[in-house]
Amino acid sequence: MAYVKTTWQDLPDTTTPITATRLNNIETGVENNDKRLNGTAFAGEMIVEGIRSKNLFGNYTILPGSLENTTMNISGNNRLACIPCKPNTTYTVSRSIKTSIFRVASYSADSLPVPTGTSTDYTVQTVIQNNDGEVITYTTNSSAKWLIIHYGHAISDSNINSSLATIQVETGSTASNYSSYQNLNILNENLINTTECKLFTKFMSTGSSTSLTIEFTNVGTQDRQYLLIMGSSNSLQPIGAVVTRNSSSANISNFGSVTLAVSSDVSNSRVTITGFSTYSYLTIISPLDIKKI
Fold first, then answer.
1. Model confidence at 247: pLDDT above 70
2. Do domains 61-171 and 187-292 have the same CATH topology?
3. Is the pTM of this model over 0.70?
4. pLDDT digits (tens, 9 = 90+) for 33-75
5. Which of 131, 198, 226, 253 is 20 to 30 Å apart from 142, CA to CA?
6. In angstroms, what CA-CA distances link 120 with 74, 114, 159, 285?
């Protein structure tokens, strides 16, 4: 229900007395607004007009490291996937493709560790493991801020990327059928659509491909129209590029460690971006109408 404000009047007008009902209306309005800001869109849950993703495993951070007992070690060829989480909450983590390792813990710092190349230990909430299984149910403690999933070894687990693509994180103690984080969050649609601006956002993986073709509905002729591409490669190299696109050409400026190239197909309103490693994980943002990726 929308908040109904009171238009207060000064004395001698007596039509707006200060009563418990009016004060409680203010308190309820403040509380509901706080819940919207701090509770609804939280812990990786994308909400667009009330639609909530069941699978919270999206927009995750990959770190080199492992989980053991109450320790997170950042180094080596093991891999950790990290997403924000709520405190005192039960999550069920599932996968359909097994690797040699499957462990879950939570981490209480405000930000994740930054790998330095030196083996470093951090304290986490007690690790739960199910290396031979497909499901782990985990309840975070009162200070938890990150859910950490130890999902495999980059060298000995040849199927590590395939397994990563099947991971689902959901609230509650029961694993349900897998649903794509992307498909449940309207990430293929224009999230902002006014007469002044249209913003397209998509989270995705390149899979086994090293190139990406993007087709626009209407390119136009203005040089300020562009793509912003951010993400990381499977080897944890940062990807960053801005693509300028008009009716006759496309240009790319790289600001990450991965050098990308771009070519354009003006007649079909397409650009093709090359230079990705297999299984690069990307966020694509554009003010253009994007028809297909």
1. no
2. no
3. no
4. 665 555 444 444 444 434 456 888 887 899 999 999 999 999 9
5. 131
6. 5, 10, 27, 35
**How many residues does the structure list for the chain?**
293
238-245 and 226-232: which strand pairing? antiparallel
Q: What is the pLDDT of residue 221?
A: 54
In this prediction, residues 127-140 reach a mean pLDDT of: 96
The tens digit of pLDDT for each residue in 199-218 reads: 566 666 777 778 888 887 66
The alpha carbon of 102 is separated from its chain's Cα centroid by a whole number of angstroms, namely 21
Residue 39 three-state SS: helix
Rounded distance between C-alpha atoms, residue 142 and residue 88, angstroms: 5
**At 100, phi and psi to the nearest 5?**
-75, -15
Q: Each residue of 206-227: b (16+ CB within 10 Å) or e?
A: beeeeebebebeebeeeeebbb
What's the count of helices (H) and strands (E) in the chain, helices before strands?
2, 23
Class of domain 61-171: mainly beta
